[in-house]
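Researcher: Re-running this chain for the archive, since the previous output was lost when a drive failed. Same request as before.
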Amino acid sequence: MSKAKTAPKPDCTTGECAPQGDVKVRKPKAETHVDRDAFDEPKCFDILLNYACQAKCLFCSQDFEWRKEKNLMPYRMAVETLYKAFQNGYRRMGFTGGEPTLRKDLPQLIAMARKVGYGYVRIQTNGIRMADYAYTKQLADAGLTFVKFSIHGHDAATHDKLTMIPGSFDACLEAIEHLKALNVGIGVNIVLNKDNYEHLEDFYKLFLLKLHLSNFVIIAPLYEGNMTLHVPAMGVRLSDVAPHVRKAYEVFTRINFPKPPLLLHFTPCVLPGYEQQMLGWSAFNTMVVSPQGKHRDLDSTAMDHTVKTEECKKCVYNDRCIGFDSSYARFFGTSEIAPLLAVPKRYDEGTRRQAHEGRSVLTDNETCVLTVLKEKSGIGTEEFLSRAEKYPICKDCKDENAVINAAETLIKMGVVARKFVKGRYLWSLDESRLRALAPA
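Model: Regenerated structure tokens:
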């Protein structure tokens, strides 16, 4: 989550801060990094509506003092901001905070974003308010297309301890079921810390294998804001986290799932072979606006808040890698940097199979295809694609190739059938085979 203010500098008197001499070489401002293409994403615009939040996560990168200030972006400013962003070519809108669901006018803002022309409107939330079905339906009816949850534990005991809100984990599970019923897209971010990183594999056994969610980001924490006060209790080295990330990815490779988690604030030298999953390794292509109206390009911000050392110059990825997050380096140093002298093997090399083999969990696109055919089976291609556009389950149903490719995979899985009848293809659903894919 991006900040709009400067976080307090770390207090090195505690002994938790790495010697300052360990972080000497910072990227020159003029240095460029080539080939940082986005993950085929159009430009996204994020509005931080407020800093208020009912959760009290010790590892939060925002300063809790900010919550005491007047930090609510006025409704008029929010509307003007999203309108100007659309004029400037942005087609994806995100509302975040803080906690955006604390805004009474959130449904109106979502509706306004859709009215302006945004086909994709997302919120980032702790999920607590969305346990209320009526409220969640109000957001969906307003035009909400995607919800990104912040869930930091594999069970209620872990998550509720981290948020300091009893019942917050169960609230998220209820909210997820509501969104599934309303055909709204769902994603989950997990911020790693000392209490949860060893349970990352268990986290995906629940959210991927049992709940059949398919959109995830694993985030190494920023050592800013409230986190600077709690590094001994919450902080964890990337090298300690790495083995558990690998185990988590094995949950995805075992079922041949094609979209494993993205990684944020990681570097190739810590997780060689996973670089294709690293956000920041490719461009974010996102603009963030604070409640006070201050604009920040996420790519520029990321570049300004990372460090590299002389060792980095030896790495095959030096031209692409933006380096370690500087807030992490202030506390843990840069001793974990070990330049890669050759391109490493992909983490899934030797395990990849045909897209349909061994699959029990569907991608968002595949879920969208099934939702369309559950509504009406035996339809032609034109109607099939038209119906797919109205469901917000996936991000790219306007891309006909994405929809057809997902349908092709489902044909190979035996769930969908396509027949050529009287000069056109008809798409239909095999209900009996579909039941085998239902979550346990």
